[in-house]
Each structure stands twice: as structure tokens, then as C-alpha cells.
Design goal:
- It is a single chain.
- By secondary structure, this protein is mostly helical.
- Helices cover about 65% and strands about 0% of the residues.
- Among the domains are: about 55 residues, no CATH class; about 270 residues, no CATH class.
- The longest helix has 29 residues.
- The two termini are about 50 Å apart.
- The structure holds 2-acetamido-2-deoxy-beta-D-glucopyranose.
- 2-acetamido-2-deoxy-beta-D-glucopyranose (NAG) binds next to helix 8.
- It is a multi-pass membrane protein.
- Its EC number is 2.4.1.-.
- GO terms for molecular function: dolichyl pyrophosphate Glc1Man9GlcNAc2 alpha-1,3-glucosyltransferase activity.
Length: about 550
């Protein structure tokens, strides 16, 4: 048998200009492949969030609108804004009879459901995620050049393949995919300068999930400055100030946003349940940190407190020293109460040595850092600045906010994806953030099979998109000045995450055999939290630096 000669060079021998443009940058293949993968994940572990959403499904299907925010049979009461409730009601229309019989729609204190309910709800996540794919496909479609299209394709595929969505939506169970889809619709409209649509979609998004308030300041300033102000010159008198604002645009934008909120909230105002609704949305009675410490400033703070407790209880004289130097009150009672590092997880963190943190402290810190990032945006409302300040706003809320969930890191990573190709200097920061951010989601899942999946998936995603972003990034001329020692430290940090994850997983597996390790559950979580803190905080530092000091990055670049 004579093997056919391989005609390898045919494409270069016969360059076909059509060939390149024929590649249509479609997300369709990715959708098919990942949907199959997600279906394989149906039997995987799911968290209590699953029962939360199942309960909401039954509340909205069984009860009249007026009772949605009053019902509290199940501890997981409805605490998302109205559009999400309508969304649950809409899904409820499609529950087949067999799934109803399975216990999907029962209004009980703890859900009793079988496989069918799980399959049905998991399918609803996959179907609703189509919004994300369509929004990103549109984002790819609006590119003006082939090069930009390629870049946007990398951005889009990095988001649809995000390990965060895989872990949080398709295993842990939540509906973030389509919510980010709406955010991306809004971002796409900001890019094409359709400001009204941009505002419209963001208002819709806020009525779905209020966590997006984290980035609302960036939207507010961007839309106000880009759409409602005449190009900037400092107004000198009130008369000039009046002419300075484009009142017509302000009116249009205002009515669009208000109309959305009216549609969302009007029924609840009508039934007089608005106060209950709002108290559900903003429960300030929760503690400073979530049960598992999201990798932010307060995690570091709590960690320091724990270390100090150990020192005070183990090192003689240390307590007096701290008391003398820092004037901190240490009650021996509280130290004894909390001195064990193995103390379980408590949502409501009481500090024993460091001063307590109140909600308004966290609020002031967040607002301060957000306001800093908004000033350059107000002066120069370019698309790039807008996305960068959105990223910084989410970051500030994540680092300094009250009761932050680890999942909120997605709110930083996804906007960041849109600007990472803007300059090669941003890539190391993105790498550190995405590596530490996604690794910090690992403790959400239990089970060895899940561990293998999340670790492998995140690793492959990281390698693929590090190289792809590297290929499509703009190179700036000042690249030579990059500090190489910092680059080396970055890589070292990212590589070190691998043994960290393996080590913690080994502890977890061994804890089945050794009782002493079981009591260290909290230490395992703390190792994750502290390691990821380093990444999230240091990449925030670097990003802030570039945001304020390197203006050349935040302008539209020609290809
Ligand atoms: C994107 O463009 C392709 C081909 O040009 C078209 O078929 C598709 O419908 C567009 N998709 C969206 C979401 O705009």
C-alpha cells in the first residue's frame, strides 16, 4: 500500500484570501462541546444553593405574587430582586409532571427531591446560559477588523469556558451564566456607544441580582459623563453649568432606568410588601466575613487576629506587650474561648484582640476606593476606562465589602477579561487574579472526583488562555522596562498554587483516617483563603498602579 503523499504546504502554495475570512469565529462549537460536558456533570455534587433555588421555584409557582417575599417555611427565603423571582416563576411553567411528583415544587422546610428535580434544574441553568453565548457572539460580531475579531473571540471563549462558571453554576448550582450574559449585552452596547441600551440592560441586570450594585458606580459615572455631559471644560458659572448638561439625554436615560425599576417593583409596592422585600435584599445582620473567608482584606484581618490569639495564649508576656504598645484590650475569657485554631466556622466573626469592624467601616473604605477609580472616568469616559473602573469597583467591593462571598470574584475577573488584551503589561496581573480567584472557589465543592475535575479544568483553562491572550495582546513600547524579578515571583506564586491544592486535598482525604485531621477542617480553608489573598491583593495593587499611572493603556488602540 502506497501512502498518499501529504500535501502539507497546499495552503501556503496556494494562498486563498477567502480562506482566512471564512473562519467565522462562532461560539457554536464551544456551546455544543461544553453542553455535553455539563450534562455529564448532572450527577455531581450540588450545594445548598440548589435547594435555595428549588424553594424559590416552588414559592413563585404556588403562591400569589403578594406572598413571594413573605413566605418563610424554608430557611432559604427569596432574597433576590423581583426579576429573578419572575424568572423562577417562568421556569416553573415548564416543570413536567414527573418532576413535580419528584418533589420539585414542594413548599417544605427542607427539600425532599430526587434525580429528576436535579436534572430539571440543571437543564434550566444550561438553557438560560444561551443568553451568555448570544451576548458574547454579538460582542464578537461587532468587531471592525479581523485582528480585533480574533481578540474578541479569545475574550469571549475565555468567558464561556470560565472555570468559575463551571464550578459555581454547573456543579455548585447558581444561575450566573445568563446574568453575566445580560452584563455583556450592556457592555457591548457601551462599546458601540448605544448608551440608552447600555443603561437599560444594566438596570435590568440590577433587578435580577443586586450584587451587581458593586459595579453600579462605574456605570453611573460613565453614562452620566459620556451621554449626559457636553465634552469637558470646567464650567465657570451656574449658567454655563446648566448648558453643560445635556438635559434631554439625561431625561431619556433617567426615564429608561426608572421604567425598568417600575416594572420590577410596582407589583410589590401595590401589595405593600416593599419594606419586607428590601429587608430581604439587604440583610445587614450577617457577619463581616462569610463562613468560608473570601480572599479579601477581612480574611487577612481575621487571620492576624487568630495568630495574635495563639501568640497571646502561648507566649508568656506577649499579652502585656500588645496591651502596652497598641492599647488593645484583651479579655482572657475571649482568648480562651477562641484560642483553639480548630474552632469551627462561624459566620459572625468576633475578634478577640484586634478592634471590631462595623458595617460603616467597610462601607467607607469601599466607597473611598471606588471614588478614586471614578475620577479618571469622569474626566475621560472612554470604553477602556469604563471597563477598567468597573473592574476596580468590583475589586474594591470584594476586598473591603461586608459579608463578601468568594463567588463575587467573578465580578472582577469577567470585566477584566475585556481589557486584558489592551496591553501586554496587564497579562501577568490577569494571570495572578484568575489563578488565585478560581482556586479560591475550590472549597465550594466537595468530593474527590469533583476535585480532579475542577483542578484539571482550571489548569487547562489557565494554560490555554494565558497563551491565547499573550498572542492577541497589544505590545506597548515600554515593555522593556518590566521588572523581571516581579515577573519571576508572579510565576512562582502561580506554580505554587498547584502543590498547595494537592496538599490540602491530601489532608482532606487523610482526614477520613485520622481523627486529628478532621478537626483541622478550618485550617484547610484558611490555607486556601490566605494563599489566594496574596494573589488577589497583589494583582489589585498592580492594576491600580497601571490604572492611575499609565495613561497609554486606557485608550482605543488601532490594530
Ligand atoms: C453573528 O454573525 C454571524 C455571521 O456573520 C450571524 O450568522 C449570527 O447570527 C450573528 N450572531 C449574533 C448573535 O449577532
Amino acid at each position: 500500500m502506497v501512502p498518499k503523499p501529504l500535501i502539507k504546504r497546499s495552503s501556503s502554495v496556494n494562498p486563498d484570501p477567502q480562506q482566512k475570512t471564512q473562519y467565522n469565529f462562532s461560539l457554536w462549537n464551544i456551546w455544543v462541546a461544553t453542553t455535553l460536558l455539563k450534562i455529564l456533570l448532572y450527577p455531581a455534587y450540588h450545594s445548598t444553593d440548589f435547594d435555595v433555588h428549588r424553594n424559590w421555584l416552588s414559592i413563585t409557582s404556588l403562591l400569589p405574587v403578594s406572598d413571594w417575599y413573605l413566605e418563610n417555611t424554608n430557611q432559604w427565603t427569596l432574597d433576590y430582586p423581583p426579576f429573578f423571582a419572575y424568572f423562577e416563576w417562568f421556569i416553573g411553567l415548564f416543570v413536567p409532571h414527573v418532576v413535580v411528583d419528584d418533589g420539585c415544587l414542594e413548599l417544605v422546610d427542607v427539600g425532599r427531591y430526587g434525580h429528576l428535580t436535579v436534572y430539571f434544574q440543571r437543564s434550566s441553568v444550561i438553557v438560560s446560559e444561551i443568553v451568555l453565548f448570544l451576548a458574547l457572539q454579538r460582542f464578537i460580531n461587532i468587531s471592525r477588523s479581523l485582528k480585533e475579531k480574533k481578540r474578541n473571540f479569545v475574550i469571549a471563549s475565555s468567558i464561556v469556558l470560565s472555570p468559575g462558571l463551571m464550578i459555581v453554576d454547573h456543579i455548585h448550582f447558581q444561575y450566573n451564566g445568563f446574568l453575566f450574559g445580560i452584563l455583556i449585552l450592556s457592555i457591548t452596547n457601551a462599546k458601540t456607544k448605544n448608551y440608552l441600551w447600555c443603561g437599560f440592560w444594566f438596570a435590568v441586570l440590577l433587578c435580577f441580582k443586586h450584587i451587581f450594585l458593586y459595579i453600579a458606580p462605574a456605570y453611573f459615572v460613565f453614562l452620566f459623563s459620556a451621554y449626559c455631559l457636553n465634552p469637558l471644560t470646567i464650567p465657570k458659572s451656574t449658567k454655563e453649568l446648566i448648558g453643560f448638561i445635556r438635559w434631554e439625554n439625561l431625561l431619556k436615560l433617567g426615564s429608561v432606568v426608572i421604567a425598568v425599576f417600575v416594572v420590577a417593583f410596582a407589583p410589590f409596592v401595590y401589595y405593600g410588601v416593599l419594606p419586607q422585600l428590601l429587608s430581604r435584599l439587604f440583610p445587614f445582620s450577617r457577619g463581616l466575613t462569610h463562613a468560608y473567608w473570601a480572599p479579601n482584606i477581612w480574611a487577612v484581618y481575621s487571620f492576624m487576629d487568630r495568630v495574635l490569639i495563639q501568640l497571646v495564649s502561648k507566649v508568656p508576656g506577649f499579652g502585656e506587650f500588645v496591651h502596652l504598645v497598641f492599647k488593645l484590650n484583651i479579655s482572657s475569657e475571649s482568648v480562651n474561648h477562641t484560642s483553639s485554631l480548630t474552632r469551627g466556622l462561624v459566620g459572625d466573626v468576633q475578634f478577640s484582640i484586634l478592634p471590631d469592624i462595623k458595617p460603616n467601616h467597610t462601607f467607607l473604605l469601599t466607597v473611598f476606593y471606588q471614588a478614586m477609580s471614578l475620577i479618571p472616568l469622569l474626566v475621560n469616559p472612554s470604553f477602556e476606562r469604563f471597563i477598567a473602573s468597573m473592574t476596580l469597583c468590583a475589586w474594591a467591593s470584594f476586598l473591603f465589602g461586608w459579608h463578601v462571598h468568594e463567588k463575587a470574584i467573578m465580578l472582577v475577573i469577567i470585566p477584566f477579561s475585556f481589557i486584558v488584551a489592551q496591553d501586554r503589561k496587564l497579562l501577568p496581573l490577569f494571570q495572578i487574579l484568575s489563578a488565585s480567584g478560581y482556586v479560591s472557589l475550590f472549597p465550594l465543592l466537595f468530593g474527590s472526583a469533583e476535585w480532579l475535575f475542577k483542578a484539571l479544568f482550571t489548569f487547562v483553562w489557565f494554560v490555554v488562555f494565558s497563551t491565547s491572550f499573550n498572542e492577541v495582546s497589544h505590545f506597548s513600547t515600554t515593555l522593556a522596562r518590566r521588572v523581571f524579578i516581579i515577573d519571576r515571583l508572579n510565576s512562582l506564586y502561580i506554580v505554587a498554587l498547584i502543590p498547595m491544592c494537592c496538599f490540602v486535598q491530601m489532608l482532606e482525604i487523610q482526614s477520613r483516617n485520622f481523627e486529628i485531621l478532621q478537626r483541622l477542617e478550618f485550617v484547610r480553608l484558611m490555607i486556601y483563603s490566605m494563599t489566594c489573598c496574596i494573589g488577589v491583593i497583589s494583582s489589585w495593587n498592580g492594576f491600580t498602579w497601571l490604572y492611575f499611572l499609565d495613561d497609554s493603556i486606557w485608550v482605543e488602540k488601532d490594530d
